[in-house]
Give the backbone structure.
Amino acid sequence: MKGDQEFVKEVTSQMVDFSQWYLDVVLKAELMDYAPVKGCMAIRPYGYAIWEHIQQLLGERIKATGHKNAYFPLFIPQSLLQKEADHVEGFAPEVALVTRGGGEELAEKLVVRPTSEAIICSMYAKWVQSWRDLPLLINQWCNVVRWEKNTRPFLRTSEFLWQEGHTVHATEAEAEEETLKMLGVYREFVENELAIPVIAGRKTEKEKFAGALRTYSIEALMSDGRALQAGTSHNLGQHFARVFGIQFQDRDDELKYAWQTSWGVSTRLIGALIMVHGDDRGLRMPPRVAPVQVVIIPIIMKKKREEVLAKARELMQRFAGTLRLELDEREGYSPGWKFNEWEMKGVPLRLEVGPRDLENGGVTAVRRDTGEKSFVPETELEQCLPMLLREIQEGLFQQALRFRRENTRYAENFGQFKEIVVEQKGFVLAHWCGEAGCEERIKEETKATIRCLPLEEMDGGKVEGPCICCLKGRGKIVYFARAY
Amino acid sequence: MKGDQEFVKEVTSQMVDFSQWYLDVVLKAELMDYAPVKGCMAIRPYGYAIWEHIQQLLGERIKATGHKNAYFPLFIPQSLLQKEADHVEGFAPEVALVTRGGGEELAEKLVVRPTSEAIICSMYAKWVQSWRDLPLLINQWCNVVRWEKNTRPFLRTSEFLWQEGHTVHATEAEAEEETLKMLGVYREFVENELAIPVIAGRKTEKEKFAGALRTYSIEALMSDGRALQAGTSHNLGQHFARVFGIQFQDRDDELKYAWQTSWGVSTRLIGALIMVHGDDRGLRMPPRVAPVQVVIIPIIMKKKREEVLAKARELMQRFAGTLRLELDEREGYSPGWKFNEWEMKGVPLRLEVGPRDLENGGVTAVRRDTGEKSFVPETELEQCLPMLLREIQEGLFQQALRFRRENTRYAENFGQFKEIVVEQKGFVLAHWCGEAGCEERIKEETKATIRCLPLEEMDGGKVEGPCICCLKGRGKIVYFARAY
């Protein structure tokens, strides 16, 4: 029989090497596997199920805000990508190029989409003619390719999955409203469904999307103290409309260039889930997106073997329609082994059904987030299980929020700033004058980047202060961190 | 105000030029638009919504039969694709090749997946070790690329969307059972959800999938008399297992090569929907997959303008939760124009709300499939609307079935065979000896191919007869047709 502890032993401790812990866990929990293509991964069923829940829950929200899904080509003629100057500069270094098709050299090379502004704008130029066609609100779920040198499962892979929304509006104000609305949708979704607290803010000019007028993002703090950009929303201004010729006849009969937005989240979110909630025993999945919410483990001994199995199966049947349930009946594995394996996979709630539970007329429920055990009488299961899952969801969020609060520090001067970045990690709040020179110097000296200029005021009245770097200019408080 | 008839006039009649009718309709109904990449298309929201319903309804069935979704890389190293000899021979001529990435020439060229056997088998070789790992039942929804010379929206495009199931089994019998089970799933899905009757059968050696042991397909008849392969299911035998080394320790401790299957349907199904059900007024969508099931059109005149609009909005609200509804309140368009536009989009049911309907306490319901009008009292709407939609779904299926029956003919001799193929089109049933030579000669002389060797016996006792081509060999009755 497979023993109790070996499962967990194969995973590096977070304290020893967080990076190795991450790689161990993604493999051990069967989220993904390395594929024989540089920087690409196979997302295994357990990992993909998380993505399916993300697609469903975020997809509902995207539709509820009036967007419709569509699908645009994978390939972008190189000349199209090159139309918007900043855009091509940003993406050209990391594209994959198709140069041959059907046995022949192609007359024009095709870029495998790194993002779809170029191809979508070329279509929008045909579809948008009049103010009646606006707003045009389209989203697509697809794969994109960015040739990355240093890859890491889910966080940075040459191919990844995402959704990208692309909208067209009649006015700048409407485009800005849409940009912020979708940032808000992301924030609410990530906080309520993934149980990850985020800071919403604006990116600096240096960090904005290649081709955008303004970029906003939500930023999360991983449990190793590094930040991760969890979603972005761009006000594209008229940059793309002008080069792709997206014009409309307005109500006043004038021909005008349209205003656009684009916004996206990707399979990176799975990386965030792992790094925000995981611990040395593996994943801790928030119930709302957990592929398996409850696992039932029959504790099989000689005594009452059949009754225990029958009860476990009965529970499975009873909740199959309302919860995502798994019954682990495998033989040849000890209960302890099974506990470890399902803990590694982060299943929020374990129900143990043993001879003693039978005698007591209930089951033992064990929470993955706290390890807390409780006995639940059979008659209270319908009420208790959903309640426990809600508590776990909320508990994970609160724990992550507490961690972020404890790891968000205000730096009074550059010395203190460096010390926090190196010694304590986490978010550092500091005044910044707004100059790219200071931003770059800070990055060079500390590897910390400006994560965002927060949308919410940080400190009540004390709005402006001297720049942490140059001390001369004055500016608002912004979020810094070393980031993934 | 936009007039009544111009909308339909822009579409070629099916009788005049079926092929042009098809191209007119896909554009006019806004299913797709041509993209600035050879052979690729943008699937517009209305067309993509059909695909989303297909994904949902077929996806449920794929999961209900025990399969889990996953995602494998877009790129396949050329050497992997070349491992299985027949497979590479079948797909090499139509691949797109990535030769540059991140600004550098790649050491090994990457094939953009035309199908994923090669990349998936390379992963399965790692994941399958013991009989405990079997059966392995995985499906993926993704894009694939096959460099096509002659393309046609939805039917044959260089990039298309599909699902591909890939399973591994311990025995040949289990693989064959799976292959036929999924063919059955496709058949039931296509008939019940898309309202398209299909013939299920086996492909000949010549027509089978490159690398398969046996290929099965479902074949549908388009309303121009040409056949279309609507889905395929392959028993891959041990072909891929042997070259990719997918081996497992069986219960008897012996190391054995596994047996595999793969099966898929694609956005081609949208082409089938259009060509089976469409007419000169446009699409006719089966309610189960219709993006819009019911359109409400307020008939606005000076009289009772406000009451009519209020009633239309009330209906919209009343059924928004249970039906896929659209309310067309646009101003500046006559009711006739709106009728034509929604007919073009194939919306199964139109509800007209005019002053007279108000007086009579109900709405006028018009079926897209038959044009039949009926008055539905307000109190009966909850009962009537779903019933009408069910009748339309069933009506479309029966009409297509009748058409297929009327266009399936038995040929006694080669002369008659040719006449049917050229003059009458449709399916031709004929005896075939099983020789590839005869199959090829028939194709050369008539452009008709063997669609399948039907799984169900065709003619009761009269099983074998002399080959329609060589007259010497004897064989069973098979389905021939010119096909898309």
Notes: The CA atoms of residues 56 and 281 of chain A lie 28 Å apart. Chain A touches chain B through 56 residues (CB under 8 Å). The longest helix of chain A spans residues 381-406. Chain A has three domains: 16-277, 292-388, 408-481.
